Amino acid sequence: MFYTIVHLSTVIVLFLSALTHYYWVLKPDAEPSSKVIPYIEGVPAFHASKLGTFLVASALLLVTLFVMELGAGIIGLLPTYILKIGGTLLAAVFIVRAIGDFRLVGFTKKIKDSTFAYYDTRYWSPLCALIGLSLLYITWGS
């Protein structure tokens, strides 16, 4: 039962994250928010292009489908060892994102006095850590 709750919750969070990124692609006045993009001295640290955001959204959608297969084996196209390796690698990606780059993002960020840093510390990094740990549980807990 707990496994099912963790699996379903992870799939929902990943899917909603993908939908949010697709929304940003379709949003006509797509000005990057300081809540989701790190700023350095009032300037975005990077430019979030429509194409880049679309690719992130599509990757998140593929990850969602992979996690559905990982936890429920609905389609059965991928062998177990691919699911285990993929699940472990995805967990590592999310955990590394949560840990951060020692500068702008993650728990180890040095720039801590921005709107992004506030949201990253309280929401984005813990969410990534939780997704990473959930993926490890989904991959190896059954």
Automatic annotation (TrEMBL):
This is DUF3995 domain-containing protein. The chain crosses the membrane at residues 6-25, 54-75, 81-100, 121-140. Keywords: Membrane, Transmembrane, Transmembrane helix.
